[in-house]
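Reviewers asked in the last cycle whether our approach scales beyond single polypeptides. To address this, we selected a multi-component target totalling 856 residues and predicted its structure end to end. The input consisted of the following lines:
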Amino acid sequence: MNQAGADTAFPSYQAQRLSLINVLSRFAPVIFLAVLMIVFAIIEPNFLKVNNLLQVARQVSITGLIAIGMTFVILTGGIDLSVGSLLALAGMAAAVVAKGGTANTLSLSTTDSTGYGVLAAVLAAIAVGVIGGFIQGTMITRLGVPAFVVTLGGLSVFRGTTLLLSSGGPIAGFDDAYEWWGKARLPEPQGIPVPVIIFLGFAVLAHIVLRYTRYGRQVYAVGGNPEAARLSGLNVKLILLSVYVIVGFFAGLGGFVLSSRLGAAEAVAGTGYELTVIASVVIGGTSLFGGEGSVLGTVIGSILIGVLTNGLVLMNVSPYVQQIIIGLITVLAVAFDRFVKSRRSI
Amino acid sequence: MSDQLLLMSAISKQFPGVKALDNVSLAVAPGEIHGLLGENGAGKSTLIKIMSGAYRPDSGTMELDGQRLQLANPHQAQALGIVTIYQEFNLVASLTIAENVFIGREPGWAGFVDWAALQRETFAITKQLGIYLNPMALVRNLSVAEQQMVEIARALSMRSRIIIMDEPTSALSDNEVQQLFNIVRDLKAQGLSIIFVTHRLEEVHEICDRITVLRDGRNVGSANVSDIKTADIIRMMVGRSMDELFQRSAFHEFGDTALQVRNLSRQGTARDAHATVLQNISFAVRRGEILGIAGLVGAGRTELARAIFGADPFDSGEVMIGDKSTHIRSPQDAIRHGIGLVPEDRKQQALFLALAVRQNLSIASLANLSRWRIFVREKAEIALVERFCEVLNIRMASPEQKILNLSGGNQQKVVIARWLALQPKVLIVDEPTRGIDIAAKAEVHQLLDEMARNGIAVIMISSELPEIIGMSDRIITMCEGRLTGEVLRAEASEEKLMQLMTLSAKDTVA
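The resulting structure, written as structure tokens, was:
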């Protein structure tokens, strides 16, 4: 959208070739996704069935949800490695509140609930996420500890807290209202899974925030050049703090939805999610150096990883090999981005 | 035309957002010193990079000795005897002179360096240049002039036929320049051709045989130096004669005091990048006045500006707006009080290179451009951008063009517009015309003049004394973090300012 005006003003051969590279780079994730889907559809006809596609969407909805928050963080040039652990802690908090304490651990009855209800559970999960993000964001902005280090610590601290709280075991057995958020479909029984609706709903909201609000503009500015942002009167520290609170919010919400979908809050939930989440954002074209990227790209990146995993499963490829492939694609996505940028700057 | 050593014809090169070269030609005869002249952004660097194989032209041809050239990389150009010495030297500081001269081509066998031969050959080449440097000395320990000699020695060792020198005199003292010229004349006597890029016009008559002038990526013309006067060269470069450069408008009345600084002091800390101490600085600036701050690098001018603007903290003293005290602790506070700052380093401190002109211009005034202070009103924003682009004559393809692709002058005007959109009472401009070409410079000067006439108090920091003297109503000078003097427009001269700018504490206390 930014480049269109510039290109039409210089319609020489060179500019056209450059804009072709630009167009390719902007739509590379979409093109790659389309190619991937066509290939899978040819190899495995079951892939394109509606139910399978909805399955894919549901699988990516949790990491996708967190990836929306991570987009804000990475746009400012930051990183959050703690999201998987924070998600587990928030899910555990939701379960504890829903069941009225840790005593109900392993109770499989769904009717003897003495807890505080699903609304309190959701709020508890979000509160844990937001507070976790706030603490980390404060350490990053006030103490000047690099985000990588703070959130690496958070990765360990939040996981340990979760294990402590749950004594290592899962909390299972929720009422229907609780499990509706993770398991229901709209309309029942063959409609869109609720987690997918939550994911896409927040994606639209985040897109509006980043694209159309003053705050969104400031996030890009701080990521692009923090010193220039400060000298332009932006409250850089507050904006940096806010993105960690936002990603915390999404980790908290994701923790609740995951526990709802699984019907249990597990202390080991979300292990390794940080990699999938960061990969989704990066494959979607958001620059790890900050200042460039979009939520739309992140949604595509999330779906791309889901499609890839699903297709490889349908093709009976070993899960070990799947990990290798996703890792390679993440690196290649960044390498491609660097390549395009270097071509553009000549 | 076969008597030319190097012939470039109809060379064009397009970059995103700018046509760097448009149908440019250049002919260099054997044994000729050819001056390549033009303002910043005229296309000299691009042309050099094409000659040296670093860029490939979009169209046009190159011939060396009548043979068509297709240079794929700098290595190929060097093999054919075209060697470039850039402003920033390509030397490895941690290696010796000899290693640098023969880097990548060390004499020896099977990967082992024959150190004796390396020293011998390096010494022979430096002797040919009439300089005596120990081949085993580390480049790190050499002066700038000596490093340049190492570059020239390397060029000679490659049996070059054409040496391209990009502003070789910009970092040299007068003596060193004379030494360089002697060497260049020697090289010419040996039959080499030199392409000499320079800004200093007085050097053209001293050293060049012929010149080619570029402007805005096009040929303005070539001439034998003996046939042309300096004033003509200037007119070729800028497209207008010197006396058309900007003049301040006639004297006008100043308003009330807009900003007052009282006893401002700041202790430096070792960790801080802006550590120069500010000592007890007091001054005032009135509405409609342009106050120049002159000083050498490190005098504390930028530190003073940043302290007033809240970008850096200060220890004691007071900044007053009108007659009211303020507690400015951040740029946000300063902006709320109606102060703006155009910082000295545009790329590092002012621009968001990944964003378009629109976002760069509106970033400080988004609060006024938003609905419920949340949603950016894009129509109002675009209207603002278009209005300022017209008023300030900012040349761009559209408000959606990336600011990266604008010239330095237009980028600077966007930064100034960013502040004008806030209607400031006080605008501090730090080196407002650094790195922009002469035409844009005059436009920026005119803009500063108009702002003053509209009642803004302008504080201008500049290292260019003619700029300070030409633009300021009043000038204060700084040295080592202290104010050392105040000069009115009518009394200002370069000599007087220079004397005040070098008035260190030792001199005054004694």
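The interface with chain A takes residues 14-17, 19, 55, 58, 309, 311, 330-332, 334-335, 341, 343, 348-356, 359, 363-364, 366-367, 370, 373-376, 378, 397-402, 405, 418 of chain B (CB under 8 Å). We regard this as preliminary and will revisit it once experimental data from Aim 1 are available.
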